Amino acid sequence: MARAPSRFDRKKPSFKQQPRVLVLCEDEKSSRIYLQDAANHFRAYAEVEICHCGKNDPKGIVQEAVKRQRNYDHVYCAIDRDNDPKFDAALEQAAAHANKVTVIASYPCYEYWLLLHYRKTRSSYVGAGKHSAGDLLVKDLCKESGMENYDKGATASLFEELLTKLPLARRRAAEVLVEANSDGGWNPSTRVHELIDLFEQLGKPQLIV
Predict the structure, then answer these.
(1) Which of 13, 25, 58, 153 could make a disulfide contact with 79, Cβ separation 3.0–4.6 Å?
(2) Model's pTM, two decimal places?
(3) What would the pLDDT profile of 99-110 be if each residue is shown by its tens digit?
(4) Top-level CATH class of 21-202?
């Protein structure tokens, strides 16, 4: 005789298991804090580990991603182009592991993503004298209302402060990426919006059909 089902029998899961995702950042404070806050906002923190891996150059970040990819479903590397001489080598190494490693590149730096919350610009940033392209972009960012005192080392609550402008930034970043893909003008551009899209997706449980 077949056993009658018990109300204590384990039910099959209703939702798909979320992937384990690792996001590696170049800097310990600015972008890492912003991205962690973004993941928390979309309730994706349970599935996403965001950390600064102790290396502050694009190639070192990608090397760390390749080393740690076996422990995750996917690893994302948030890196800046700026004037790093090994940036192209980092892209090549990531491409060799494209099935599990994705580069989230910003040209010249992550602060372009922040600037897109205020305005869209396609004017290239080129280093001059002692100032890198990234330095000049940050200088432009500091001209925007509310960003006058922007400091890479003190950016707590920045995600929340810019939240109302997030839809604009996402739309502008996507537009710029399409244009950059078309004309090859990567400076300036960013893929940070793709991480925001990922966090939003991970924050929504997926039903098993």
Answers:
(1) 58
(2) 0.88
(3) 999 999 999 999
(4) alpha beta
